[in-house]
Write the structure tokens for this entry.
Amino acid sequence: MSVSAPSRITPLGKVTPFRAQRIWERNFLVYRRLWKIVFSGFFEPAFYLFSIGIGIGAMVGEVAGPGGVAVPYTAFVAPALMAASAMNGAVIETTFNIFFKLRFDNV
């Protein structure tokens, strides 16, 4: 009966600011070629605010805010749209990297 020796675990290396800078540079170069994705991250929430805030806001009017103070619907819905935009940005950032690596890098 033969017993195989466990393989040697190699360390990943030291974590230095230079490595973080290299990752940032790589992401910058990748996103420079994909500038439409960067701009869509800005324009998508602006279009949502325009359509929902102004379009529906014209029909809704003012909403009762904290303490019963009347607030315009655009000011009422804008923080929620900003939060949704931040969450969408985080999801796209993580899922796009996973998709790209599975699809094109053949991980």
The CA atoms of residues 11 and 19 lie 15 Å apart.
